[in-house]
Amino acid sequence: MNRSPVSLQREGDIGLLLIDNPPVNALSPDTVQGLIDALAAFEAAPELRALVLACEGRTFVAGGDIAAFEDPDFSAVPYNAFLGRLEALTRPVVAAIHGTALGGGLELAMACHWRLALRGTRVGLPEVKLGLIPGSLGTQRLPRLAGAEKALQMMSTGRMVGDQEALAAGILDELCDGDLRAAALARARALVAQDWQPRRASALQVPTAGLAPDFFDQAVALAEAQFHYPALGAIARAVRAAATAPSFAEGEAAEAREFMGVLRTPQSQAMRHLFFAERQTGKIPGLPKDLPLRSIERVGVVGAGTMGGGIAMALANAGLPVVLVEATSVALERGMGLIRKNYEATVAKGKLAADVAEKRIALITPSLSYDDLAQVDLVIEAVFEDMALKKEIAAKLGAVVKPGAIIATNTSTLDVDQIAQASGRPADMLGMHFFSPANVMRLLEVVRGARTDPAVLATVMKLAPRIGKVAVVSGVCYGFIGNRMAEVYMREAEFLLMEGATPAQVDGAVQALGLAMGPCRMLDMAGIDVGAKTVIELGKTGGLPADPSYRALVQALYARGQYGQKTGAGYYRYEGRTPLPNPDTLALAEALAREHGIARREDISDNEIVERLIYSMVNEGARILEEGIAYRGSDIDVVWTAGYGFPDHAGGPMCLADLRGLAHVVQRLEHYAQVRGNAHGYWRVSPLLRQRAAEGRTLSLGAR
Ligand code: NAI
Fold first, then answer.
1. Residue 672's pLDDT is what?
2. Is 674 touching ligand 1 by the criterion CB < 6 Å?
3. Where in the chain is the domain with CATH 1.10.1040.50?
4. Which of 32, 300, 448, 577 is the most exposed place for a label (fewest CB within 10 A)?
5. Ligand 1 centre and the CA of 336: distance in Å?
6. How far is the CA of 29 from the centre of ligand 1 (A)?
7. Average pLDDT, stretch 17-45?
8. CA 455: distance to chain centroid?
9. Whole-number pLDDT of residue 476
10. Which superfamily, per CATH, for 6-264?
11. Residue 127 falls in the annotated catalytic set
12. Which residue is closest in CA terms to ligand 1's atom 25?
């Protein structure tokens, strides 16, 4: 039998309950059972006069067992009953807290009678980030200790609070430096010596002095208005119960009801799915675990434009020295100037200390010579999207960077294998596709070339979290995972506009789903010119369907010089940044429809817009899986939520399709094939999607 992760030791006449469940002392079923057993042992040892509860390793209990929520029989009852018994002890119980006490960990600490923390400790109830609410009396004890406003704020954002803030709020009783366990034992002895009577959070009243009479009802109404996140309403209602229920037990029952209510919501399922999905992307099938990685300590970036500058900042923010190479001194100065301006803006907003910003800028060395790249471990090329230029630079880099260095291209559409071939070192090469602004956006698509050395791939995947990115591997294809799917999404948006929907209607329909921005606003912001050029370039390589109406609107807008926000007109017309209806564009869409024989309709519903945009994208995602471009459906969901503003509460497009049912998705695709016609194969259902639907399986959700 395995050793229990919990033990009860004796330190003279004080019991020391120790949790040792690396890495973060999460509340596994074994740990909960260990706690129950250790408490029973303490109860049976009346000679012990107080209990200290502490954790081995780098942190106090930092959360629950998230995988356990997927179990249909999940129940919080055993743990909650344990917390009740712990708090009910008549001998003092001291929590000795270090690291991060999160979720079930903070709930454990709040059931103790005294909370002593090592300086630097942080605490929080982050359940909302999984679409859940604290389910082990956090919603009941925290408002009693910290007040309703603070508790609501902490639980609704999931934010961690630092030691000083937690002390001031009454969540912690005392801070110490040095030997936490010794200090906790000393505190326990002192309490015993004073004959101190345990102070139980459950016995306190939620302080309501100073709160408006309708404070709780207002809080509930505000939270419920954010209907995409049902956990917010549940948290507010549970806190209201903490303040207004006649007894703690009734508040506890209210919390349990609310918890079970959110546990099975699609929103929470989706957010938990993403939690696991993000932890999964680094696992690359077929790669040996012990593959020796290359070391990355110095990085080069070629091109100091929009992307190169952002990439250099992302690297410098992680403390990596960067050599930034440009073709001309004018471009180099402009690039460095923009980087400086960017940092200064962050400092001005109070989000970064001025000296830290200076240190980061100092990490970036501007240069006009490729020779300065000789000693870097990784170089990322971010020059214009031009195959001839990219090949020329790849060849230069292949010749100049030291053996063993990794060469990456930030191309968004070009064939990484061709560029790799040009470098003369295809095994050292891959794509690193950042998203704009590269110092802000979390997504990094890592494009694995046909000849990329597995160690190169694994090294870059390992680098990603260091520079604040979540990396997803993509195979080589046009647009990789994200932009390839965005292309079909834009295709349908444009057809709908030509059929008679307005940009506001198309955007509104997907924004109601929770997407940050609909396709028309997105392209107006990114630039119609940028969008049109990629379509035109794709056409030149023979990559477009033989359909003259394909994305005809974006090309016509481009031809008219309507580039979106930057020229004041695109799909919309702009006053400042405010999008307004653009009658010219509506007329243009109508003229194009006439030219291409597209029937105009007045009955386009929001549901049709959502289905045509999202389901066609899901279908493309299934093809991406079929072709092995993505390793798993959940990787595709990470691409869309981390890189394209797809809402976390929907879990990504593939998860959305799973939750709605793949059979339904197939049926709707077939419906559109029939009513829209399928001459160009737009509605051809992916065989994988069809097969999964027939087998009642999923593409992403739970398909780990
Ligand atoms: P940009 O035009 O802002 O910057 C390109 C820079 O490369 C310019 O500063 C130019 O002076 C420099 N450059 C040109 N030839 C050079 C050479 N021989 N040596 C050194 N520097 C040279 O372009 P942007 O937007 O930064 O795009 C760069 C790459 O990133 C492209 O491949 C693009 O497709 C890709 N990309 C762009 C995204 C975006 O949203 N802008 C998103 C993801 C990838």
1. 97
2. no
3. 488-695
4. 577
5. 14
6. 52
7. 96
8. 26
9. 97
10. 2-enoyl-CoA Hydratase; Chain A, domain 1 (3.90.226.10)
11. yes
12. 306
What is the predicted pLDDT for the residue at 1? 52
Overall average pLDDT of the 129-136 stretch? 97
**How many angstroms separate the alpha carbon of residue 382 from the centre of ligand 1?**
5
Using a 6 Å cutoff on CB, does residue 372 contact ligand 1?
A: no
**What are 355-371's pLDDT values in tens digits?**
999 999 999 999 999 99
- pLDDT at residue 483 above 80? yes
What mean pLDDT do residues 297-317 have? 97
Report the alpha-carbon distance of residue 386 to residue 304 in Å, rounded. Answer: 16
Provide the percentage of residues in the chain whose pLDDT is more than 90.
94
pLDDT value of residue 537: 87
d(CA 333, CA 145): 55
* DSSP states of 560-602: TT--BGGGTBSSSEEETTEEE--HHHHHHHHHHHHHTTPPP-S
**Span 167-189, mean pLDDT?**
98
pLDDT at 216: 98
Among 384, 440, 530, residue to substitute to test ligand 1 (most atoms within 8 Å of Cβ): 384
Third-level CATH fold of 488-695? N-(1-d-carboxylethyl)-l-norvaline Dehydrogenase; domain 2 (1.10.1040)
Question: What's the chain's length in residues?
Answer: 704
All CATH 3.90.226.10 domain ranges in the chain, comma separated: 6-264
**CATH number of the domain located at residue range(s) 299-474 in this protein:** 3.40.50.720
ipTM confidence score: 0.96
Contacts of 54 (CB under 8 A, 6+ apart): 16, 17, 18, 19, 60, 95, 96, 180, 181, 184
pLDDT value, residue 289:
82
Whether 483 lines ligand 1, by a CB cut-off of 6 Å, is no
Token output for 354? 């001025």
Both tokens of residue 420? 């790799």
In which residue ranges of the chain is CATH 3.40.50.720 found? 299-474
What pLDDT was estimated at residue 65?
84
